[in-house]
Amino acid sequence: MPTTDHLTVTDNEATRVIAFNRPDKKNALTQDMYRATTDAINGAQDNAAIRCLVLTGGKGVFTAGNDLEDFLKGGTASADKPRPSAALGFLHALARNTKPLVAAVDGIAIGVGTTMLFQCDYVVASSGARFSTPFIHLGLVPEGASSLLMPRAIGHQRAFATLVMGRSLNAEEGREAGFVNTVVPAGEADTEALKVAREISALPAEAVAISRKLLKPSPEELIERINHESALFGERMRSEEAVNAFKAFFARKKA
Fold first, then answer.
1. What is the mean pLDDT of residues 201-225?
2. Domain hosting residue 47, numbered range
3. pLDDT digits over 56-65, tens only?
């Protein structure tokens, strides 16, 4: 089973807490982190003792999204491999997940850090949370079935402003838009998320599972959209727009 020092998985009573743990890089996701997170999600599916999952980045940051250098090394730009399999495997795991999923967001949630929240069932955000999906600025397109889920959750106009125009949202704006359930003071997102997870875990498990399934698009629909986005994402990675945007990004980073 792939593991990484940058992910901590803890089973706390009936809750599995999956914590990104790379604070020096703002929890930027590597391929190893994707693989370990996928394993943590998939490993809970047939475990009746796990009634709820919590995704967190700990205090101060959720995730800055993909580690772009690691992402590019993963073969994203090659013609026969439109996205690294680890990232795609993680998105498929989210789509197939049958356990209630709670997110605890304290700080920035960039790119997939925001889009994965639309696969979650309950989102707790701290007052310092900030949501951003700057795909277009890199010449890319949305991923994670966000082009399907975000308009359904917050409406086409808000989704356009977020996914296409790249406008960010703070915690209160996220709650107003409807994808954040609760806003708590900075540093308290994990505590509130665990409280919510305990509340969910105390409910009749089968009734929760059936009701959750009724509320969500089918895994097949989600995976079809994820794969379609992924193919377009791969094409865009090889586009002149994206190549120039990435060159500019890394030039700014070195400056």
1. 98
2. 7-207
3. 999 999 999 9
Residue 143 inside a domain? The answer is yes
Structure tokens at 191: 């505590």
Measure Cα distances from 201 to 195, 205, 238 in Å.
10, 7, 45
- pTM (predicted TM-score): 0.93
Q: Are the beta carbons of 54 and 99 closer than 8 angstroms?
A: no
Q: Is residue 187 part of a domain?
A: yes
**Distance, CA of 182 to chain centre:** 18
Contacts of 23 (CB under 8 A, 6+ apart): 58, 60, 61
Beta-strand relationship, 52-56 and 108-110? unpaired
CATH number of the domain residue 175 falls in? 3.90.226.10
Number of domains, the chain: 1
C-alpha 43/C-alpha 40 separation (Å) is 5
Residue 191 lies in a domain: yes
Let me know if residue 223 belongs to a domain: no
Instruction: Indicate whether 120 pLDDT > 60.
Output: yes
Q: What share of the chain is helix, strand, coil (3-state, %, to 5)?
A: 50, 15, 35
- Sort strands 15-20 and 7-12 into parallel, antiparallel or unpaired: antiparallel
Cβ atoms 163, 141 nearer than 8 A: no
> pLDDT (tens digit, 9 = 90+) per residue, 33-58?
999 999 999 999 999 999 999 999 99
